[in-house]
Each structure stands twice: as C-alpha cells, then as structure tokens.
Amino acid sequence: MPLDFGNISQALRIFAGATAHQSQEHIKPTHQYVALRLVLEGGFFPDEITPHPPVKASRSRNGWILEYAPEQRTDSEQTVFGGMKTKQIDVVVAKNGIGPVVAVSVKGTFRAYRNLVNRMEEAIGDSTNVHVMYPGLVYGFLSLLRANRQSDGYLANDMGVAEDNTISPQIRRYYAALCEMAGRRFIRNDYTRYESVGLVLVENSAEAMGTINPLFPEPDTPLRVEPFFSKLFDIYDLRYPFRAEHLPSVRRAEWLTSSPLFQQVTELHGQSIEEILGYTPRICE
Q1: pLDDT, position 56
Q2: Model-level pTM greater than 0.85?
Q3: What does the alpha-carbon distance between residue 27 and residue 142 come to, in Å, rounded to a whole number?
Q4: Residue 231 in domain
Q5: Which structural domain, as residue segments, surrounds residue 119?
Q6: Are 90 and 26 in contact (CB under 8 A)?
Q7: Is residue 3 part of a domain?
Q8: Coil, strand or helix: which one is 246?
Q9: What is the number of structural domains in the chain?
Q10: Is 247 part of any domain?
Q11: Count of C-beta atoms within a 10 Å radius of residue 197
C-alpha cells in the first residue's frame, strides 16, 4: 500500500505489539516513518537518505515530483565516522560532496525502566562521538517507551503508568535528563547535546495499541514528538542553505501537489494528504 508507515501510528502499532526486540523488527517501521517524513516534510531527496524510503523523486517541467517506488525501499543503516569510533545510525541524510547533514537515532524500550540511565549514557556518548567529527551534523534522538500500565499487571520496574495515571518515577527522571540533552543550535555548542530530542510514550493496551499518550510529555513541553522534526529542519536551514545560498544542492526541495504519489494516496484513502500523514508535506503548486 502506498505510504506504508507514512503516519506514525502505523509504525507505533508494530512497536507496541512486538514480543521481541533482538531482530530490530519492532523499530524498523519507525525508521521508515522517519526516512519518509524527511522526504515529504523535510524536502530531502530519497536517494540521499538511508534507509531508502519507498519513493522516488524526479524533475518535471514544472518542478519536483514524487512517485511510489516500493522496490527502492531498504532497511539498512548508515555507518558514520565519529571522533572515537564509527557509528551505525538509524536514519541519515548525506549530501554528495558534503557528507552527513541530518541524522536521527531511534531507540525503543519495552520494560526494565530502572535501566533507562544506561540509555542516557549511551545517547550522550553517541552525540559526542558523532559531533566531534561532524560539528555541523543536525542530530536528533527519538526515544520510544511502552506505557506498560499497572492496571494490565506490570510491576514497578516495568511499569510506565500507574493505576492513577501518573507516570513512573523512572520515566520522569529519564524525561528530565533528556531535557538537558536537547537544544544544540549552533555548531560551537556542547557536543553532548542533540539538536532535537523527542520522547514518545506508546500505549500498548488492546484498546489503544500504538496510540501516543497525550498527557506525557505534557503538551507544549520540549520533548513532545510534534515539534521534533520542525526543529531539525529549522537548524538544518540555519547551518546549510542560510550560509550557502549559492549551493543549490543544500536547498530543501518542494514537491508538486500534482505528484503521482499524492494523487494515488488521496484517491486510495479518500482524505487529504495532511489528514493521512498527520503533518503537512513540503508542497508547492
């Protein structure tokens, strides 16, 4: 079906319902969601992105168009050189002649929330390692946690949401630490920070499988997933097109509304493209 994982809820349902995580099958749909969103909303070309999303771009007389191309989809990761070691990053945008310019690391945690401190240490090390080599890289960290409600039988160490709907102390502490890891805007800023950080608490009960908990993080707080991508795009524009207006290759593309991809998807679902995706793609007439 066109735009598999075009909406985050499709990917999160697989994450929420997974029974094992060793094969990465629980998180790869989210990688595809991120890669596709970098194309549709971000204006990056599919061939610049690893893993390659199931779309292709071509130039028409009137502008850039997108087409559904499932045969081009890959599930690979990009190896990026760091200051201390190489790092495989889940989703990477690399510009020819420039190198990696945007990257997103996606981490999913099912349980054992007492160990989230280990996740923080790993994330800080990854950001430092990569930014030492590429200070201009716009790096995002997206953390998925399963809600694991106490009412469904989860014990304290694995519980995310208590009987009274309060969030577990382990997740609260994790949230506070992630807030300190976000907000790197300029290339001389602290290498341990990420340009954008998002935290998603994913419901895994039968009646709400894959939905995002609307109450945590609280609305209008820094780690909500809604502004995660816009922060990446804003900082990318500041570091690349703003400083190199003479380089067409760093400009983000706009996709024609008449693109076969958009026409096919809207006809299939009978909704606007914004309703289908849950965000507004970077389009022009």
Answers
A1: 97
A2: yes
A3: 11
A4: yes
A5: 8-284
A6: no
A7: no
A8: coil
A9: 1
A10: yes
A11: 24
In a domain, 118, yes or no: yes
Buried/exposed code over 101-116 (b: 16+ C-beta within 10 A; e: otherwise): bbbbbbbbbbeebeeb
**Using an 8 Å Cβ cutoff, are 91 and 104 in contact?**
yes
Tell me if 42 sits within 8 A of 252, measured CB to CB: yes
Q: Which residues contact 65 (CB under 8 A, 6 or more apart)?
A: 57, 58, 59, 255, 256, 258, 259, 260, 261
How does pLDDT run across 142-172, given as a tens digit for each residue?
Answer: 999 999 999 999 998 899 999 999 999 999 9
| Interacting residues of 102 by C-beta distance below 8 A, sequence separation 6+ | 38, 42, 44, 92, 93, 137, 138, 139, 140, 232, 236
Kindly report, residue by residue over 109-146, the tens digit of the pLDDT: 998 898 898 888 899 999 999 999 999 999 999 999 99
Residue type, position 158, single letter: D
Amino acid at 6: G
CB atoms within 10 A of CB 23: 9
Task: Report the residue count for the chain.
Answer: 285
Q: What confidence tens digit (pLDDT) does each residue in 238-283 have?
A: 999 999 988 999 999 999 999 999 999 999 889 999 999 999 999 9
Q: In this structure, what token pair is assigned to residue 155?
A: 């014990």
Is the pLDDT at 208 greater than 80, yes or no? yes
* Strand ranges of the sheet holding 49-50, from the earlier edge strand across to the other edge: 49-50, 91-95, 99-109, 138-146, 196-202
| 51: preceding bond cis by omega (within 30 degrees) | yes
